[in-house]
Structures are given as C-alpha cells and as structure tokens.
Amino acid sequence: MLLLFAIQPSSKLRAIPSSLAGQWEIGKPFYDMAAPPVGINAKQENKLIGEILDIRTTSVSACGTSIQITSIEATTYSSDAFLQEYRIRPDQIGLVAPLTEYSFISHGLTAICGSLEAFVIVSDGKNAVLDIANDYFHLNKVKTVR
C-alpha cells in the first residue's frame, strides 16, 4: 500500500507574514504521555516559559539572543503529512491543519534559546507553537508589529 500526504514544497519568503510578526510569549510545553518530550530538560524548559519571542522583519530574538534573518522558509502540511514528519498529531499540540512551519535562516550557527533548531509552526493564522528540539511550546501573541 502506498500512502501519499499533502506536503507543499518549502518556499523562500521575502518578508515575514503579518500574522507572524510581533511579540509572542513562550508558554508551557505540550505534553503527551504517548510521546513525551525528548529535546531539552526540565531546567531548560522552565527558563523558556515566560520569555518573549520577538519576530521582526529582519531578526528574531529571545532569551537574550538576536538572530539576523537572511531568509525564511515556509512549508505547509496537511494533518497527515504533519503526523508523518513530526510523529505527533497537530491537535496534540493545540493546532489544526493546514499548518505552516516557518524556519528562520541566518548566517552562521547562532542559537536561539540555546538551540540551533527552532521553528515556529502556525495554524489558522493565530494559534502557534515554538518547536525547540522536539519540545512544543504554546505561543501567545502579546503584541503585533506592523
């Protein structure tokens, strides 16, 4: 049996979408007993909770670190494709399909909040999570930047 899932090829964006730009408070991580977090430890998680993720046109900053963005890649997933890629259903982390994953590309290996891999995943333009090392943190938008 062959299964095909709808994954839109990643595309490079010229600018951060307006729904993504602004300041987001990093909330508690989502936990699922079937798939417990594997990326970072409890001490690192607690340091992230309450931090502000500031997404601007040319930079992303959090945890006292700012990364200059050279480009942004966006990949859109169906629910099944997201499950296949991330091994977790969107509803387990508070999202609904279709989902868009935004990857911020910069020069060098600057880490955001101690991780070289940090992605923002958005569904329906307002619900979002921060994926750091396979831990999914709820994001609450606290300020919109125009």
Description:
By secondary structure, the protein is mainly beta. It has one domain. The chain has 2 helices and 10 strands. The protein has helices at 42-48, 79-86; strands spanning 7-13, 22-29, 52-55, 59-62, 65-68, 71-77, 99-105, 118-123, 127-132, 135-144. It has a 10-stranded antiparallel sheet with strand order 1-6-7-8-9-10-2-3-4-5. Strand 8 and strand 9 form a beta hairpin. The longest helix has 8 residues, at 79-86. The protein is globular and about 30 Å long. The relative contact order is 0.27.
Termini distance? 48 Å
Q: How much of the residues is beta strand, in percent?
A: 35-45%
Our Rg estimate from Cα atoms comes to: 15 Å
Spatial order of the strands in the main sheet?
Answer: 1-6-7-8-9-10-2-3-4-5
Largest sheet: 10 strands, antiparallel
Mean pLDDT over the full residue set: 79
Number of domains: 1
H/E element sequence = EEHEEEEHEEEE
Output the structural class: mainly beta
Helix count from the secondary structure assignment: 2
Number of strands: 10
Oligomer: single chain
Which stretches of 5+ consecutive residues score pLDDT under 50? 1-7
| Envelope shape | globular
Task: Please estimate the helix content.
Answer: 10-25%
Salient structural properties:
mainly beta, 146 residues, globular, ten-stranded antiparallel sheet
Give the SSE layout.
Layout: E1 7-13, E2 22-29, H1 42-48, E3 52-55, E4 59-62, E5 65-68, E6 71-77, H2 79-86, E7 99-105, E8 118-123, E9 127-132, E10 135-144
Task: Summarize the model shown.
Helices cover 10% and strands 43% of the residues.
